[in-house]
Amino acid sequence: MMQIHLHDLRFFAFHGLYEEETILGNHFEVNIDISYTPVSLPVNQLYDTINYVLVYELVADRMAVATPLLETLATEIAMSVLDRFSMAENVVVSIYKLGAPIENFEGRLGVSFTLNRD
C-alpha cells in the first residue's frame, strides 16, 4: 500500500454558517492522505501513481466554492478524489478553520472524514 500526503495546504475562503464569515472570509488548512496500490513496483512513472498536482488542483477548486459546513467540504473532496482517481482505495480529508468566530477562542477547529472505495 502506498500513500500520498498533501498537508498544510492553506486557503483563504468564505466558508461558514454566519453572514460575517461569508463576507469577511477566513483562513483554512487542509490535509489529505490517499492510499492506493501502485500499478507496478517500483513506481517509476507518473501514470503508476496518483498525481499530487491534480489532487491539489481538485482541493483548491473545491475550496474556492463557499460552503456553510466544513463537513460538506470534507465529504465532497473525499468523494471527488475517489471519483477522479480510480486507483485510490482510501482517502482521509481534514479541514481546519484557523480563525473560528467564537469569542475568546484560541486555536483551530476542524473536521476529518475517511472514505473507503468499498
Summarize this structure as a short list of keywords or feature phrases.
118 residues; alpha+beta; GTP Cyclohydrolase I, domain 2; four-stranded antiparallel sheet; 28% helix; elongated
Topology of helices and strands:
Blueprint: E1 2-13, H1 19-24, E2 26-36, H2 52-63, H3 70-84, E3 88-97, E4 109-116
Helix pairs in contact: 2-3
Question: What proportion of the residues is helical, as a percent range?
Answer: 25-40%
CATH class: Alpha Beta
**Mean pLDDT reading:** 94
Strand line-up in the sheet with most strands:
1-2-3-4
The helix tally amounts to: 3
Give the topology string: H per helix, E per strand. Answer: EHEHHEE
Question: Could you list the spans in which at least 5 consecutive residues all have pLDDT below 50?
Answer: none
Instruction: Give the total of beta strands.
Output: 4
Shape: elongated
Q: How would you describe this structure to a colleague?
A:
It is built from three helices and four strands, in the order E-H-E-H-H-E-E. With 118 residues, the chain is an alpha+beta fold. The chain has one domain: GTP Cyclohydrolase I, domain 2, CATH 3.30.1130. It has a four-stranded antiparallel beta sheet with strand order 1-2-3-4. Helix 2 runs antiparallel to helix 3. It is elongated, with a radius of gyration of 16 Å.
